[in-house]
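Friendly challenge for the regulars: who can give me the structure tokens for this chain first? No prize, just bragging rights.
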Amino acid sequence: MSGNRHQRIRAFFRHAFRGVCTLVVAYFVFVICVTLLVAPLGGALVEFSELSGSAARERMLWWPDGIDSGEVHAVSHKYDREFDSSSTWYRIRLNSEAASMWADFTHTQKTVTAIRSDDSYEGVHRTVPGPPPQPRQTGATPSWWTPPRTEFRATEVMIWYANSTSGVARAAYSAFDKSTGTLWVYEYFAQHDILWPHGKVPEGDRFQSSDDAS
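First reply, four minutes later:
Bragging rights claimed.
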């Protein structure tokens, strides 16, 4: 009888332990799901002004390869998103060589995203007058965003849904102000936004998927 009682006790604690573990796992899954669903609707995910390069790097979600944070004197940054769109602003004080690397990284990412897409795409590299456009903006423009009225390098992409006149718009705009040593960058993406009608890519250095070229 004593042996059976011990077995029942062990079985009870074993089942209780499993039950507690199940509840803990369920709780963390719930927290993660709520975070992923609610956070994008709660305003800016990242926002700061005039941080040093090293401090900014710790706060940012990504950092261009090859740029040492010590080369960056100050960063102001805002990243805002919703379920189907996002906007990103940068004001970065750094030397011209690092600024060129940062801009190249930003524009290359837009091109690579299009090329890796399973859908057809059209894109263009060109220059636009500043301040750059902020199409389908997500969130409020930060108070420090005061870009110069100069030419901005632009990479604009339309990724088209199959058998549809809609798609996903992506763009990046950048300019380096040599007089102040400041790089200005604006990026965005938005589903169901149209930068141009299908097949009507603006003048510039165009690129597109093979099915759009045919």
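The first helix runs from residue 2 to 38. The CA atoms of residues 32 and 80 lie 19 Å apart. Your move, everyone else.
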